[in-house]
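Handover notes (outgoing to incoming on-call)

Open items:
1. YbaB/EbfC DNA-binding family protein: sequence verified, structure written out, both below. Nothing else pending on this one.
2. Nothing else urgent.
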Amino acid sequence: MAAVNEDRMQAVEQLQRDLAVTAETVEHPNGLCMVTASAKGEIRALHLHPALLQLGARAVGEIVTETVRLATNAAVQTSFNKMALALGDGMAIDVESIAGDSPFRSKWNPVVPPKSAAEAAPAERRPRAPIVEDPDEDAFFENPFGRR
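YbaB/EbfC DNA-binding family protein structure tokens:
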């Protein structure tokens, strides 16, 4: 039993070391920017094509930000994959249920709640029945046999 626990502890320590150095390099679809980022969003390398700088500051910011997001998502996905290999699919599913789906799973198989019928069609408004003032509150207790 102690050997099993020690093996698990060593596997967890190795997984922590692997996840600490996990980084992914992604090139923007337009080919003007390439980023290496960790799963924490740390930018480890940034390469800009000279043509990108001619597009203006706003375009540079948007393209760099999008490429960093893509690289971070790729690194997070790699982390999920390493975790599944080290801990098993069952544990990886449990972690995803707590932390949320991995980035690529949420794009390929998004979990979208079905629209309820109440949201699709607004309820019809019916007029409220008028409140009738009953002057005799004791009418309920009258003798029902006295009426014909």
